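Complex 121.
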Amino acid sequence: MSRNRGRDTRPEVLLRKACWASGMRYVLNARLPGRPDFVFPRHKVAVFVDGCFWHGCPDHYQQPAIRADFWLDKLVRNRNRDEMVNCQLSEAGWHVVRVWEHTVRRELGDAVALIRAQCKS
Ligand SMILES: [Zn+2]
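Predicted structure with zinc ion bound:
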């Protein structure tokens, strides 16, 4: 499954650096369903940073005017895939944390706190 998203897009780098700076030691490139952006194996926490456009953020997603059907279809497929990945991971005992790109950009501390809370639970 290809997505138009590199492995090192900016918001995910921002978030993982902030985690590292607060002492949380993540692992990259875990071989798990959906290829999480980074994981905390000891706590079985898998983190995804979801792009506002690609994953259909309720606050920022804007339907492109051109080829609207194509983009809507793409969004539906991305969302279905997100749900499937969530299920697969939780069945395997992982906690899934999905953070919106806008949260990383605007409320980085909150995003880190959310992940930290998952690592403690
Ligand atoms: Zn957003």
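Helices lie at 10-21, 68-91, 101-106, 108-120.
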